[in-house]
UniProtKB/TrEMBL annotation:
Name the record gives this protein: Phosphatidylinositol 3,4,5-trisphosphate 5-phosphatase 2B
InterPro entries hit by this protein: Endo/exonu/phosph_ase_sf, IPPc
Signal peptide: none
Bilayer-crossing regions: none
Inositol polyphosphate-related phosphatase domain: residues covered: 1-180
Keywords: SH2 domain
SMART domains cross-referenced by the UniProt entry: IPPc
Organism, as annotated: Xenoophorus captivus
PANTHER family according to UniProt: PHOSPHATIDYLINOSITOL 3,4,5-TRISPHOSPHATE 5-PHOSPHATASE 2B, SH2 DOMAIN-CONTAINING PROTEIN
Amino acid sequence: VAVQSLCNMRLAVFAKPEHESRISHVNTASVKTGNKGGVGVSFFFNRTSFGFVNCHLTSGSEKVLRRNQNFVDILRLLSMGDKQLSAFDISLRFTHLFWCGDLNYRLDLDVQDILKHVSKREFEELMFADQLTRERQKRKAFFNFKEEKITFPPTYRYERGSRDCYLWQKYKTSGVSLCQ
């Protein structure tokens, strides 16, 4: 259907060839938010409007407010969809809007507590410390979106090549550790 890129972010939307004649009004857009941002693709499939957004929000445990602002900037400034609805943010322009990417929200818990809950597969307990969950509840970001129940452990900072061993410290190539 379309591809949109911004720096190292890319969004590609595909459809089966037999649906090509049902797709119209394809739009692409991007928004830069500092050194991060978002990309989007929208289109009509028959009479149903679809929007897709991929983003990379500010990283760092302490930068929740900047992530929230990145979200708001992308929501308001990403120019795609029905131009007659330009007064509305993109969450109100589509029948279905899908948002994905590196949101960078973290767990506000001590690493050892996180590891304890992960080992017991207590993912619901981790959700109480999840920054994204809290910001959604406060209606600061992603409040009109639905998220599936989380049934897998956090994926942040696995040891390279591993899917079950976490590294919670960053290491420079010099071997000097940087605690986050």
